[in-house]
Amino acid sequence: MLSRWLPFEKPLVEIEEQIEELKRLAARENLDLSDKVRRLEDHKRAVMEQMFAELTPWEKVQMARHPKRPYPLDYIGALCSEWLELHGDRAYGDDGAIVAGFGRFSGRAVAIVGNQKGRDTKERQERNFGQASPEGLRKAERVMELAARYGRPIISLVDTPGAACSPDAEERGISEAIAHSQLIMSQLPVPIIVVITGEGCSGGAIATALGDRVLMLEHSYYSVISPEGCASILYRDPAKAPESAEALNITAEDALRLHIIEEVIPEPLGGAHRDFGLMCKSLGATLERHLGELSQIPGPQLIEQRYARFRRLGDFEEQPSVAHPELNGNGPKEAASQLNGL
Fold first, then answer.
1. Engineered SS bond to 244: which of 82, 208, 230, 301, CB 3.0-4.6 Å?
2. CATH number belonging to the domain at 62-312, selected among 3.10.310.40, 3.30.70.20, 3.20.20.140, 3.90.226.10
């Protein structure tokens, strides 16, 4: 059972197993064990409140990759009254890592694109673990351009460890496909809302994340590189991924503080997978609010604001450096030597 849960969730899973065992015993022996079950439920909630209030950045990365975490098709099925998925890029083929199509959300016709990872080993291989190939991004572009033609807002659900990095994807121009997808999204005169629902990693994430509003679920992350990849480069040791996650500032709270996103959407206690209904209610209300606001803005103004938003990313003021009078007039070598002695 623990294989379906994260290592730090082990104490919580053990309590849940005790609760299930008491319920089975009560049913089998016709006993009233409700008081014991209630005490364990209270204990479980207390453990959860403490556990999830103190998550480290690395533990949040693990939550974003949780094997039971909902994927875009789960949200689409719960939030849309109608859904028509389109396939293929009209040039090379279809890519299961990207789902794209049209649905009806809260009575409003919308286009939705997203990364789909897959649940079991076979589906994950078929969908390449949600890592888009060039044809997948072209499929997303085709749907988004069709949405713009008919004035339909676009919702992009991002959950990927990165773009496809196979030789085939490189040969077909994955880097150009990522850039071209961003170019297309920057020019569409309809509202675009991006939601990072799990992993928002590397070029695979930014390829479909150029929107008017970018939101993140509480236990998702957004980064230029995975913590393991960063640790391999900087520390020459993938085992230092927890330290990399801390240094990269990749949590939803970090992204909000750095003005990379507009809003963090709270998750149910324990994560989106523990109360999917409540998560959908929260996500749906947030999407409806932002769509209502953006639908009042004319298309040309949307494009201008989107461009300005994109240009503001990474715009920081540098703090003035502390002057050391002792170093005035010295060259680099002398300065380094004196700094070592300070």
1. 230
2. 3.90.226.10
